[in-house]
Design a protein that fits this description.
Layout lengths: L4 H4 L7 H4 L4 E7 L10 E4 L6 E2 L5 E4 L5 E8 L6 E7 L5 E8 L39 H10 L15 E4 L2 E2 L17 H4 L3 E3 L15 E4 L9 E9 L5 E8 L7 E12 L9 E15 L2 E9 L2 E4 L4 E2 H7 L7 E4 L2 E4 L2 E5 L2 E9 L4 E21 L14 H5 L6 E3 L5 E3 H14 L2 H4 L1 E2 H9 L4 E3 L2 E3 L4 E24 L2 E22 L6 E2 L5 H4 L15 E2 L4 E23 L2 E18 L11 E2 L3 E15 L4 E12 L3 H4 L16 E13 L3 E31 L5 E32 L2 E14 L4 E6 L12 E5 L13 E10 L4 E11 L1 E2 L9 H4 L13 H7 L4 E2 L2 E14 L2 E10 L8 E5 L7 H8 L9 E4 L4 E9 L1
Parallel strand pairs: 1-7, 8-11, 19-26
Antiparallel strand pairs: 1-4, 2-3, 2-5, 5-6, 8-9, 10-11, 12-13, 12-52, 13-14, 14-15, 15-16, 15-17, 16-22, 17-21, 18-51, 19-20, 21-23, 22-23, 23-29, 24-25, 27-28, 29-30, 30-33, 31-32, 33-34, 34-35, 34-36, 36-37, 37-38, 38-39, 39-40, 40-41, 40-42, 41-44, 42-43, 44-45, 45-48, 46-47, 48-49, 49-52, ...
């Protein structure tokens, strides 16, 4: 039960001897104008009950023992405030002064979801949204960047998410295979994980050392949620259409128990992209047991099973025909939509935490976590037939247009015709949206499989699959243990010590999902007869069963293992006008790969390989200089190394244990300095930053023509390979990210604010890294390695891709005293580039295959024209949001809505990649100069106007 302040205040009337035997902590709550805020709820972590501020905003806690405390203040329509303070011996009264609460303009779930695009046929990594990683905070720049720019794939400072830290109940949620965080592990549980503690960018954190893109710490103690029920329903037109959730919290009872349960679902029969669906659940169970005033134990279970389909990137040609919602991954089967790209997974998390107040000055948190489960991603595969994707270049009008008009070819409807007629047929189909040509034809794939005659393959009689569906599976088992120790020497000095250990094991394999009417598929390389004549071509030599059926593993099967230990001491202290925070880090990781298949090309494909160990070190520092109570200078500096992740170390793990050449720790040096103003009517942060990254390893995969590989068998017979799927590796990549950030919030009148943001950066490559490539078409090269050196990639001073390097925002916010609000803002993005492809910027790209000299008549100006950086168009958007809340007795109702891209701009390219299909200059330049380029860049476009309407009810 929440104590009313009038009852709490009675303690002040008790006799003096009783009063002086305890410490009273008190404060006054004010709004941005300095007016009292009444009826705000104040929760003191470690205390059994909450208090409520009175009409003048006053609240207090009595009988507080010496120690370190954290307090959370909540009120509808205001941002949640989290404060920390210390109570020392013989301190009778502690005055926390005036505490300011600021309006929460957008305090409802905004429906920011992760839009994941799978790798397409070229194998380049899809664009991953960073929207879910952007978090709001009291910092004006970060708040605007999260809510107003994050929806459009803006990454502050141009740094990707692999250089940060996300923690859940003291446990790092970073996956050690690639450094990413799978936010889907707690998808839909917004009300459980909403209020994280954040150390922005490379500033030091109390909980972990982190990297460049913030430490985000989420805590889910069951006793800290508001007692009662909270129900939410949302409708939107994004990846999902509907969201419903219900949460119940018991509060802490007299026996020291608290329980919180939540269930959520997000679903859509068809999302905003054509042919996609969404069905995801989220479940949470939290139990907290307070053993005594010094000891608390919590248990948390989080499970979020999901099944959803994904959408494809496209070339500009396809967008011109079919628009931004086109998706090549689906088609009709017996009149029903069916997608080839379906993600399905369930990886539940079990966590136990122990909170121990060792004494008046020290505390220790210990966390144990176990996560397991499978993640599956399906895709269509084929053997000895042409790619059936409607977006495959040979199935587009541009391909037919590139041929001799009178040439006799197989047309788009499967009959012989001339190239000119095929072009007209294809053009008409794509222009009109004939789904028999523009989408997958599942019925045709079944017919092709079932029309095969039964033959004997490896002692099995049946119909071999030409087309079939597979699942790429990762089966994870992850153990974590972590500790967080705090010791307060005095009010001004605090010692911190974090230590963590993670044991990561993931088995990865491909599994037959659907044979599409056939009896089996061969676990054999369909290109072996051409590329590797005389060799078996078997993906797993020596196995008894080469013919695979549904549920059987094929193509690859291996295990990733990694153990990682980190220790992170920190010291925070104040001296005069300075607040200083120093944080250090030392870490050790051990990684290996164990192959379970014996690939026909590689001797090191099977069995456990060598262990690769890396030591890492780092230091971070923050210094705040207080000019006065409203003006500050803030410096953040970091210098650290980061061990390569498993996918950086093992460059072709599906087929062998090859390791990237010269693999080493990435080294980061980051500095920023800010001038901050924080007053009731004016807030500003102006920051300059410089981030240098060295020794980075980059791995990409794609299909290339003109690569000119030569292989030889045991008899010395050579085979020339012109086209192959290749893995490209760049080592010792150097980057520089520098720029200026400005965030401003001005109160024009008490209820109206103007807010603005400017982010101006320059994110470039700083060297010409050595480039290698590997290919199964070649296997091992003459040097005995499975990769070859193709020289330097001349990308120095090219812009990095993936985010706009300039962004601006201007908006207004109106907060009515009657608890409704309205906001609108204009956003502008510029200097957005595609990452430069390395292979086409090497000397290999311009060398004649016979003379190994540059092609005849190749000039610098022509080369410069062809390899010009791929700059994306600038664009602007308008967003609006509004809402209203009601407090009716003990009931609370909130209705909020957001409309992004209100002008329905569909011309903004959020990202993409250059295709490297043509690996030699003449073919590349010829294709580039066509009216319809066959291998132009593939893009992701913004999906047009979107809305999100949210209704919340608490009781």
């Amino acid at each position: 039960m929440i104590k009313k302040l009038s009852l709490v205040s009675l303690f002040t009337l008790f006799p003096a001897p009783y009063y002086f035997a305890q410490t009273t902590v008190f404060a006054y709550l004010k709004d941005a104008e300095g007016k009292p805020i009444e009826r705000a709820e104040v929760n003191l972590k470690g205390s059994e009950e909450d208090v409520t501020a009175d009409k003048i905003g006053y609240f207090q806690f009595v009988d507080i023992k010496p120690g370190h405390y954290q307090m959370m203040i909540t009120k509808p329509n205001y941002e949640t405030k989290i404060m920390e303070f210390d109570v020392i011996d013989d301190e009778k009264r502690k005055d926390l002064g005036n505490v300011t609460l600021y309006p929460a303009i957008i305090n409802a779930d905004q429906g920011l979801t992760i839009i994941e695009n799978e790798d397409d046929e070229d194998g380049l990594n899809g664009q991953s949204s960073t929207v879910g990683l952007l978090q709001s905070s009291q910092d004006v720049f970060s708040r605007i960047a999260a809510f107003d720019l994050g929806f459009y794939w803006f990454r502050p400072r141009g740094i990707d998410g692999r250089s940060g830290e996300t923690m859940l109940n003291g446990i790092s949620m970073i996956k050690l295979d690639n450094g990413n965080v799978d936010l889907g592990n707690w998808g839909g549980l917004n009300e459980i994980t909403r209020y994280p503690e954040i150390s922005a960018n490379h500033s030091p954190s109390e909980y972990a050392f982190g990297g460049n893109t913030s430490v985000i710490y989420k805590n889910t103690k069951a006793g800290e949620y508001r007692k009662g029920f909270q129900g939410t329903y949302s409708i939107t037109n994004r990846n999902y259409r509907n969201r419903g959730s219900l949460r119940y919290s018991s509060g802490m009872n007299k026996k020291g128990w608290a329980f919180t349960l939540m269930g959520a679902r997000r679903w859509a029969e068809e999302g905003i992209q054509e042919g996609t669906f969404y069905n995801a659940y989220g479940t949470y169970l939290g139990v907290e047991k307070r053993l005594n005033d010094e000891h608390t134990i919590t248990f948390n279970f989080i499970g979020a099973p999901y099944r959803r389909s994904t959408a494809s990137p496209s070339t500009q040609e396809i967008y011109d025909y079919r628009g931004v919602h086109y998706n090549s991954y689906w088609g009709y089967q017996n009149g029903k939509q069916r997608s080839e790209r379906i993600r399905k997974g369930f990886q539940p998390i079990f966590q136990v935490q122990d909170f121990w107040k060792i004494n008046k000055k020290s505390s220790l948190w210990t966390s144990l976590s176990y996560q397991f489960g499978k993640d599956r991603g399906s895709r269509l595969d084929w053997q000895n037939v042409q790619n059936p994707s409607p977006a495959y270049y040979k199935n587009l009008p541009s391909y037919y247009d590139s041929l001799d008009p009178n040439a006799s070819i197989m047309g788009p409807i499967g009959t012989m015709t001339t190239a000119q007629d095929a072009y007209q047929t294809s053009l008409a189909a794509w222009s009109s949206g004939d789904r028999g040509i523009t989408q997958l034809d599942w019925d045709r794939l079944y017919r092709r499989n079932t029309q095969q005659s039964s033959k004997n393959y490896y002692d099995q009689l049946g119909k071999r699959a030409l087309y079939y569906l597979v699942d790429d599976v990762s089966d994870d088992k992850i153990w974590n243990i972590a500790t967080h120790f705090i010791h307060n020497f005095n009010d001004n000095t605090k010692l911190l010590l974090n230590a963590s250990y993670q044991n990561y094991r993931s088995e990865l394999y491909r599994e037959v999902k659907d044979l599409l009417g056939a009896d089996f598929v061969l676990n054999k390389d369909p290109f072996a007869a051409t590329n590797q004549p005389g060799k078996s071509g078997l993906f797993n030599e020596g196995e008894e069963n080469v013919t695979k059926k549904v549920g059987d593993r094929m193509t690859y099967n291996y295990i990733f293992r990694r153990q990682e230990f980190k220790i992170n001491p920190g010291l925070k202290f104040s001296a005069g006008r300075f607040d200083i925070f120093i944080s250090g880090m030392a870490g050790y990781s051990n990684s290996n790969r164990e192959g379970l298949f014996s690939h026909y090309l590689y001797k090191n494909s099977k069995s456990k390989g060598q262990d690769y160990s890396f030591w890492t070190y780092g230091i971070k520092g923050q210094m705040i200089y207080r000019l006065n109570g409203r003006n500050f200078f803030v410096y953040n500096g970091a210098s650290y190394s980061q061990a390569p992740y498993l996918e950086d170390i093992f460059i072709t793990p599906r087929v062998n244990g090859a390791v990237a050449p010269n693999i080493q720790n990435m080294v980061v040096n980051a500095n920023d300095i800010s001038y901050v103003i924080s007053s009731p009517f004016f807030k500003m942060r102006l920051t300059g930053y410089l981030i240098n990254t060295n020794n980075e390893t980059s791995v990409q995969r794609f299909f290339a023509d003109g690569i000119q590989l030569s292989t030889s068998d045991g008899q010395g017979n050579e085979t020339s390979v012109q086209s192959a799927f290749v893995t490209q590796i760049m080592t010792d990549v150097k980057k520089r990210n520098l720029g200026i950030e400005l965030g401003v919030d001005v109160k024009v009148i008490p209820t109206l604010s103007l807010q603005g943001l400017a982010s101006m950066g320059q994110f470039t490559y700083q060297n010409n890294p050595i480039t290698y490539f590997a290919s199964d078409a070649a296997g091992e090269f003459a040097n005995g390695l499975s990769y070859m050196n193709v020289g330097k990639a001349y990308i120095k001073n090219y812009r990095q891709g993936g985010t706009p390097q300039k962004a601006y925002s201007l908006g207004l916010r109106y907060n009515s005293p009657k608890y409704w609000w309205f906001g609108a803002n204009w956003n502008y993005f510029d200097d957005n580039y595609l990452d430069p492809s390395a292979l086409i910027r090497t000397e290999y790209f311009i060398q004649n295959k016979n003379s190994f000299t540059p092609f005849v008549n190749l000039t610098q100006s022509e080369l410069r024209r062809v390899l010009e950086p791929n700059r994306l168009p600038s664009s602007f958007f308008f967003n609006v949001n509004l809402g209203k809340s009601w407090v009716i007795g003990k009931y609370y109702v909130l209705v909020s809505s957001t409309v992004n891209n209100i002008l329905n701009n569909r011309k903004y390219i959020t990202g993409g990649f250059e295709q490297t299909r043509n690996a030699k200059f003449p073919d590349f330049a010829k294709d580039m100069d066509r009216e319809f380029t066959l291998f132009g860049p593939k893009y992701w476009y913004t999906q047009g106007r979107s809305y999100f309407v949210n209704v919340q009810f608490r009781f």
